[in-house]
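Appendix B, record 7
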Amino acid sequence: MSGAGAVSDKIMADLVGNLLVAQSGGPTAVINASVAGVIQEAGKHECIEEIYGGLNGILGILNEELIDINDEKARTIEGLKYTPAAALGTCRYKINFAKKPEQAARDMDRLFEVFKAHNIRYFFYAGGNDSQDTAQKIHEESIKRNFEVRVIGVPKTIDNDLPHTDHCPGFGSVAKYNAATVMEVAADVSSMATDDGACCIIEVMGRGTGWIAASSVLAKRAPSDAPHIILVPEIPFNEEVFLARVKATVAELKYCIVVVGEGLKKVDGTEYSADSSRLDAFGHPVLSGAADRLAELVQGKLNTKTRTIKLGYAQRCAAHYASLVDMQEAVACGEAAVRAALEGKSGFMVKIVRTSAPGAPYRWKTDLHDLKEIANLENMIPRDWLSADGLMPNEKFVQYARPLIEGEVKVPTEGGLPKYVTLEKSRVEKTLPPR
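Structure tokens (predicted):
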């Protein structure tokens, strides 16, 4: 049984104005569900006059690219709960006072010009670490500028690395999809196993944390089941230990399934597959090729036939196999964000609080946490949730993750395929000069 937190009996309606919601960073299977939660809750309150969506995150807002959500059909908004990707569009644009102070100052001036031009008094930003940093900066600037706008962050990341929340919306669905995929791949590989032996290495997302990789342990229903090795960034990669486990597993089962997080680290702390010559929009080295590098190692050292699979975008957009728990929590986080803002809160992120004990029926609620303690921080897997050799999560991790993949989202179909929704995106008239 789950709960979404209590609704306050006293809603402060002293701030009348318009609402703006936007998305940022990599999408998830349920990020649109959070947007649906914001929109549907906002529609219940008269002090919120217009509901706008910002196209392509903060970058679109700076360009005054807003859409009128009130022009959307109610069934389309409901359909967002089972539609993957970012319906409003997303970006990886960072307002960076540390490295680009002059540009950041211009961005903030422009942002508040847009807010004033469209009377934005409620702003909700759905995203991960960098997005929560942006939300915190906007909150702080609103205080400096004496412009009343209530800013609430809505958590989103398949990486599950936001601190102070039990877990992040998006994680349960990627865990469900990846574990199922590992089961299916293992069935295929094992059916073709011969005396020569085979190894299959599956690379998953997660950047500097191993939550996604570790969640594939949910595929194991017996000790001999795949995955046989899980490599996470929290444990420095030990080539000798890894190769010995692969060799022993192939000798016993004729095959070995390895799951590796893209951010796997070497003993010196550098990323095993990082390409420092290529940086993303937030300045992070591009991660690609951990599975390929491991395959070269296994093939070269053990002379074992090895194949690789990189799940890539498929793992974060697999709405056809999303977790019902995950979707419900994503909606609840959007709803809770609106209620918090109406109660006068600003500068917070909604978080999920687990209220049930390990092993007991899963229960949860929403709460708030100060954005200052969330932005740009990474929550790592606790060391005591991993085996002594670091090659497999233990029962503590399993008890944590298993409830998050429960239930199936009923996605409508058409012609045998999912029938997702698309927003009309009626543009709000621009009133400012181009940026």
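Remarks on this record: The domain at 171-316 is CATH 3.40.50.460 (Rossmann fold). The radius of gyration is 23 Å.
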